[in-house]
Model the fold of this input.
Amino acid sequence: MNDLEDQLLAAAAAMATGERIVAVTGAGISAESGVPTFRDAQTGLWSSFNPQELATPDAFERNPRLVWDWYAMRAARVGEVQPNPGHLALHDLETLFPSVIIATQNVDGLHQRAGSSKVITLHGDITRYQCFADCQGRLTPIDLTSLPSWDTAAGPPRCPHCGAYVRPAVVWFGEMLPPGALDAAETACRMADTILVIGTSGEVYPAAALPFINPHAKRIEVNLAETSISRRMHYRLRSSAGAVLPKLVDAVQRLRNP
Done:
């Protein structure tokens, strides 16, 4: 056996003895479906824009149409892709364990589309919308399908409650995470027997701290490359999520249901 196979079998044995699984996922798992990572260079019209300069409340206030159009482009791309075997494997874990919770930094909704029933969206959801002014309290969700038609060339629609602009329901730089999301993820990690850390660099906080809240949990990293948190993992699977997670689930299933 090679090192990956050794690590996979050891990780499966550690998982199989537990009952509560948490998966902390990042951009890497969705990149396999064709979703560009946030910091990937954009193409065409957007190639000259810095994403970190568009994803802020100040940018939206300065030029709401520009930011709205950029997110509309990203949402359209998300709608064109499908969950990959990594997403589907995490859903399959629900048939093996009584508790499987995903805490994701991704905003694409692919875990939900794969069928996972307990997904904590730490950074929001690009397919959902809210009032920029949070006029009905944080957060004020807006259903675009319930709004009258608006001139899309003029920018985002207006909130039906207060008239402020509608914005994507994602976390921008300088903003707090959605109410309750971080608390729910921390609680899940404290109770976990195993924490899977999948496709994340471990450099974006507070999400990067989640795997280390519980010193008793077994930590399994799934990533193509070494990361800043690799040395703190008990098991390291150097592979893509789509390639290795189905094998990990199969190995766990054989151990739990011999």
User: Anything to note?
Assistant: The first strand starts at residue 20 and ends at 25. The domain at 1-35+83-123+177-258 is CATH 3.40.50.1220 (Rossmann fold).
